[in-house]
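User: Could you go from structure to sequence for me? I need the amino acid at each position, not a summary. Structure tokens:
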């Protein structure tokens, strides 16, 4: 009975509240096209009450204020209006006039508060949902390539790595990617997952990219930049949207080798969002991409100038298996001992080492090039009151893509999930989220191929022979028959490879399945990474309580639960837990009649792998001498704790070869460097060639520690006559304890350096370590945007990054050309009712030198000029659009890094429903 009375009381209060409220309805349209405008803000002046128009431009707003009231109606790209409303008698028809866009963009990530992009204290680039709709690129990750200051490395169709200010590589652990407040990194690998579990194409509201050090606001590892992505609010963006792209790639141009024939490209995305009532809304998203991936085909020999037909020790960049090599002189000496009459043939060969590699497999036909990527997302929002909102969301991604690091990795059936719960007010938020990863059946190209070779026929078996003894015998037989040395090596390889497991054969597939399904810890190459990340954070803005200065404070707690079953980390017995604690404080003040903005921030970080905490700071000043003209100066001091990979990685990357973190505990306990000292791999190779032990050079190592950077930036941004916007800047950075990589080797079990002569008796490592010398980087950039009226917009940007005092003992991943030039030109609506539009972009990079971590490859990346273009037509009554376009329209294949694939054209047609 008491429950019934309580229910009736609540029902009465709800009805009473509804009776007191008054409903205003209306439609908002563009005066130029008469189309209904979605996501337009409708607010009651001097009140917290407000709403947004739906996907057809309709809105309804329940208000408690008495008439008359004033509605403020606004949307970027249109002139704001104030509408007097005297009653709720009938619907209101509101026309918005298109207005200036340049200079109206607002950003949040630069200072954690809403501000104009023009007045940002640091360099920031932005992509909006409207930019994405008008872009000729297939997805927003491709669009990011054209932003000022941004470098990318494309490992495959589904894996693009982003960086800024020169440090460009796949899987950059010093670049932070944040999606709806959540760090998008893989819990174990610590680098951003690109588009794997980021926003779907239809759910992007805004993307902001901060160049350079940003750890003062976003924590450790933000040294090379931060990208902040915000999804669409279901209260604001409502309705059903569909994007279907069908295309074709691998269209051969006759000038570039591409083993794949013309193939279909599919990209389908769907989004549905609805406002149930003024308090509740939800959205669901899905996107599926499928295509035959670009294939890495670099045949450059890593062991010298020869080819696989001229060098017996050939080891191609994208030919896997040739990393297994050996000096056949011991086998020649054995043959001579058995038959002294062979001396005339053998003794001349013994004058120098004779290294021979096993036969490798090309990538095409070895790694599955069928790229698939599925992302789904759901979010529910509940407004507890007009100033407080509860949010829960979940995102799940899975697929098959290829990634480049110390070798090529096929991420097959990987799975990543990210889940969030958040309370958000105008001045504060409390957020918790977790990320979990499942590496699926990841195939490590290099070591898997080496084990396949060994599974078919061992390199050497004292009891039964092996591949190298067979090779040596066939070589001598060919030489005895009068064959030249070059042809004799080819004949020897053909003989030793008889019956070899060829690509696609049942024998090959059986061996590949066995090796790739056996964990690394048990002698195979399978990752068992099931690592997780847990994060909790809170932030408060004291603006309502402290008026004379703006204060923002926050705290963050994070737990990495590293769980790879001893296949990625030394976690054989149990998962390794790494915790991080941080707190930050930002102070900001406006002076000189609000023309001068000063801000400073401090951040405290503690990582349980390292004994000492670190403090990060930032200070900035922005001065507006003339309206819409801003001079900015900033200083940022940033620390980066070594990532879990840089500290603890223990991963097989080849036969008797490992990628290793720089923790001395790992190096001493696992690799016994304290007993069997390491030597630089370069000096080991010199010793093998000369036989002179004096060529060997010890590698001096210490426990890895945090790196830091002090960065200064001076910039000037201005908007002229609402038609021209430009931004120029210069920066200079000083790095200390710079973390790079070195290739070394030791001989476990013996200190006899002659063991380095036999590849099977020494072990190679690619080790993260701190360089002792200071490294400086510097650069400059400029961009100009011109509103040419009648919806024509042109943009151009130029930037250049350089490194000084480079530590030549390290692989530092500063892989960037001397300069970049990006251009855009388009029109967002022309013709009758503005139903036609087009967009074109040009990205130009001169050739540059590129080094891949882990010793996979290094070399020259050719210059590239990539043109993308698209033309669109709106079907207004059907609320749809048809787009016809192409990326890399000239089909001149290009690459973004050594060992990565060459990328050709994709010609496509897109159907878009209910999209801005």
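Assistant: Here is the amino acid at each position, in order:
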């Amino acid at each position: 009975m008491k429950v019934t009375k309580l229910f009736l009381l609540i029902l009465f209060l709800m009805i009473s509240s509804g009776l007191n409220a008054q409903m205003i309805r209306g439609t908002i349209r563009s005066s130029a096209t008469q189309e209904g405008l979605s996501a337009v803000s409708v607010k009651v002046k001097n009140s917290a009450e407000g709403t947004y128009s739906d996907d057809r431009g309709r809105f309804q707003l329940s208000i408690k204020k008495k008439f008359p009231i004033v509605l403020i109606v606004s949307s970027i790209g249109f002139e704001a209006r104030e509408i007097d409303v005297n009653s709720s008698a009938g619907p209101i028809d509101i026309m918005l006039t298109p207005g200036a866009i340049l200079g109206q963009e607002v950003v949040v990530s630069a200072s954690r508060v809403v501000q104009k992009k023009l007045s940002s204290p640091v360099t920031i680039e932005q992509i909006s949902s409207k930019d994405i709709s008008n872009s000729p690129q297939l997805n927003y990750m491709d669009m990011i390539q054209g932003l000022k200051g941004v470098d990318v490395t494309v490992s495959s169709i589904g894996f693009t790595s982003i960086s800024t200010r020169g440090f460009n590589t796949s899987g950059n652990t010093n670049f932070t990617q944040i999606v709806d407040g959540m760090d998008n990194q893989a819990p174990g690998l610590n680098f951003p997952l690109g588009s794997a579990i980021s926003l779907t194409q239809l759910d992007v509201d805004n993307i902001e990219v901060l160049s350079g050090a940003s750890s003062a606001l976003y924590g450790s590892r933000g040294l090379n930049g931060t990208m902040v992505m915000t999804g669409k609010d279901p209260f604001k963006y409502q309705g059903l949207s569909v994007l279907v792209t069908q295309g074709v790639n691998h269209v051969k141009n006759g000038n570039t080798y591409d083993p794949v024939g013309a193939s279909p490209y599919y990209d389908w995305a769907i989004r549905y969002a609805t406002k149930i009532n003024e308090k509740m809304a939800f959205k669901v998203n899905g996107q599926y991409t499928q295509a035959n991936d670009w294939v890495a085909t670099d045949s450059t020999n890593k062991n010298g100038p020869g080819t696989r037909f001229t060098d017996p020790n050939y080891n191609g960049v994208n030919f896997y298996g040739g990393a297994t090599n050996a000096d056949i002189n011991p086998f020649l000496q054995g043959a001579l001992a058995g038959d002294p009459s062979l001396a005339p043939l053998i003794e001349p060969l013994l004058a120098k080492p004779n290294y021979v590699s096993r036969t490798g497999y090309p990538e095409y036909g070895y790694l599955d090039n069928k790229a698939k990527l599925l992302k789904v997302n759901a979010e529910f929002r509940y407004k507890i009151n007009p100033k407080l909102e509860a949010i829960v969301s979940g995102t799940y991604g899975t697929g098959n893509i290829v990634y480049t690091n110390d070798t090529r990795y096929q991420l097959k059936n990987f799975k990543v999930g990210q889940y969030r719960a958040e309370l958000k007010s105008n001045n504060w938020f409390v957020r918790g989220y977790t990320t979990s990863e499942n590496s699926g059946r990841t195939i490590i190209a290099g070591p898997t191929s080496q084990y396949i070779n060994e599974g078919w026929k061992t390199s050497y078996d004292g009891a039964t022979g092996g591949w190298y003894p067979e090779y040596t015998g066939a070589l001598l037989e060919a030489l005895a028959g009068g064959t030249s040395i070059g042809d004799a090596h080819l004949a020897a390889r053909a003989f030793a490879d008889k019956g070899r497991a060829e690509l696609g054969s049942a024998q090959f597939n059986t061996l590949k399945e066995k090796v790739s399904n056996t964990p690394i810890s048990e002698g195979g190459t399978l990752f068992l990474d099931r690592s997780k990340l847990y994060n909790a954070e809170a932030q408060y803005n004291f603006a309502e309580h402290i008026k004379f200065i703006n204060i923002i404070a926050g705290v963050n707690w994070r737990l990495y639960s590293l769980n790879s079953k001893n296949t990625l980390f030394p976690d054989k017995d149990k998962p390794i837990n790494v915790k991080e604690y941080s707190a930050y404080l930002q102070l900001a003040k406006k002076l000189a009649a609000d023309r001068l903005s000063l801000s400073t921030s401090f951040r405290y970080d503690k990582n349980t792998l390292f004994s000492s905490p670190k403090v990060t700071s930032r200070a900035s000043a922005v001065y507006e001498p003339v309206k819409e003209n801003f001079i900015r100066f900033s200083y940022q001091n940033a620390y980066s704790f070594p990532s879990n990979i840089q500290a603890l990685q223990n991963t097989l990357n080849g036969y008797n070869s490992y990628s290793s973190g720089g923790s001395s505990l790992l190096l001493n306990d696992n690799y016994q460097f304290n007993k069997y000292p390491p030597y630089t791999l370069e000096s080991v190779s010199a010793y093998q060639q000369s036989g002179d032990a004096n060529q060997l050079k010890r590698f001096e190592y210490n426990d890895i520690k945090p790196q830091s950077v002090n960065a200064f930036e001076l910039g000037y941004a201005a908007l002229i006559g609402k038609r021209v916007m430009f931004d120029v800047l210069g920066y200079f950075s000083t790095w200390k304890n710079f973390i790079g990589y070195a290739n070394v080797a030791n001989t476990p079990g013996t200190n006899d350096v002659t063991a380095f002569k036999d590849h099977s008796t020494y072990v190679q490592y690619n080790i993260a370590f701190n360089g002792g010398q200071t490294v400086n980087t510097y650069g400059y950039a400029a961009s100009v945007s011109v509103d040419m009226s009648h919806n024509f917009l042109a943009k151009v940007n130029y930037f250049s990054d350089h490194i000084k005092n480079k530590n030549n003992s390290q692989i530092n991943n500063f892989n960037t050309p001397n300069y970049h030039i990006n251009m855009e030109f388009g029109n967002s609506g022309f013709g009758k009712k503005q139903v036609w539009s087009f967009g074109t972009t040009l990205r130009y990079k001169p050739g540059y030198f590129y080094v891949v971590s882990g010793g996979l490859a290094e070399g020259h990346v050719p210059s590239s000029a990539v043109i993308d273009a698209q033309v669109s037509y709106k079907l207004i009554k059907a609320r749809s659009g048809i787009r016809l376009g192409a990326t890399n329209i000239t089909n001149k294949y290009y690459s973004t890094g050594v060992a990565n694939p060459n990328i050709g054209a994709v010609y496509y047609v897109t159907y878009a429903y209910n999209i801005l």
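One structural detail worth keeping in mind: Residues 2-96 form a domain with the Immunoglobulin-like fold (CATH 2.60.40.1120).
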